[in-house]
Amino acid sequence: MAGRGARSEGTWSRRALLRTGGLATAGLATAGFVAPTLAGCGGVGSGGGVELQFMYWGSSFEQKAVNAMLDQFTKTHEGVSVKPLYTPRDYDTKVNTLVASDRAPDVAYMGAAMGHRLARQGRLVNLYPYFKKYPSLTDRLPGTYFWYGKDKTFGTQTANEVMLLWYNKAVLREAGVEFPPAEAAKAWSWDDLVEAAYKLTYDQEGRHPDEPGFDPRRVRQFGISISLQYLPAWECLLRSRGHDLVDESGTRCLLDTPEAIEVVSNLQDLMYEHRVAPTPVQLGNNAPTTAVQLQTKRIAMVVDGQWILLDMAQSDVDFGIGVLPSYGDPSTTQLGGASVIFSSTEHLEEALELFMFHNDPEHVDLFEKGLWMPLERKYYTDPEAIASWIDNDVHPPEYKTAVVDYTLHHAVTAVSQRLANMDNISEVLTPALQAIETGKQPAKEVLTAVVPKVDRLLRGWHPTQDPREA
Fold it and tell me: By its UniProt entry, which PANTHER family does this protein fall under (predicted)?
């Protein structure tokens, strides 16, 4: 799916969907959605068999792939049919409506914040007791689980995603800039990134920001774009600097530390001091997708999610993927919405089978198409399993080191998935980040002021545990 600015009216981009449980939850417009007519989820199909309901979001491409998966599930599970509830807009509102009226689906996509709330209310199935029945559930990447207590998890991510550095190879070649490293051990420093961005930024007269006469109001091409408002895009830089958003106890925000101020100030400086990154005004409210920005050479390098590989592979861009710049310890953000089973299901056994089936790379082509990354560890460690989803024309040659190895060894789960009460914290943090990104105030001033407000909302980290101990 598309990245920043790729949302049509009333429709979430994947970036917005992945932050439903965290920063800047979007308010969505009403869309045509037919609620289930059954009293309760699932039920008896017209032929007398079991009918499940599967509720999900996504693009039209994802809809096609998911529906094909559901058809395949029906063909391989005699007596079971699945009704797809495709909901590309106003997802949280519609889930709340269905839950309140006791018409929740059997299996569904879900944001982190809503998932934790419904799990605590007992409305979601705790999957931990089923780990022994489904051993592959215990072998998913540790950061992909949604734990809400000891031996309690309401699900895992539907698919995995990480943040990466995307670039237009032709643009970098023309400017004489070496491609960003595709190995974590060779990651650029922050200064390396800035130096490259200067060479890749020029105005309508071809002047660079460090040359006399450069006109920042008439920039033809920017060197880099990193969203400040989108926390997953840069929280990994903070961790690379040796910090997290909050301390280990989950009760003290660390955004006013010298390290955090340095990282966020550097992001702000890309726009207002170095002038190598577009400001929100220059980017525009309806900015094109990352693929289009790179293809039109409006921007040379962009930090965005792995999911845009689907768009990139279908574009005419000669693109490359690099690891993110590092302050010392290479790091990227791992994130993804959850898949869950509602405890109100009348057909738990069949719902569990569907849960295990729906994001298995053997049944869904969204992995080899570039939208999704697998959850199971074997797809990052076993050469044959790795080849099954990346050995194709969609995934570029550097993907193994830039994404697979990078994820396995250097990915940390997004704060929005790990930190309790993140939906309320985001209401305070988002305006502060907007003030920094728009250049209204220096980063240090904004961060120092917002930390006490965040501290009052902190409720600690969500629990974690090793799934293999089941």
Answer: ARABINOSE-BINDING PROTEIN-RELATED, SN-GLYCEROL-3-PHOSPHATE-BINDING PERIPLASMIC PROTEIN UGPB
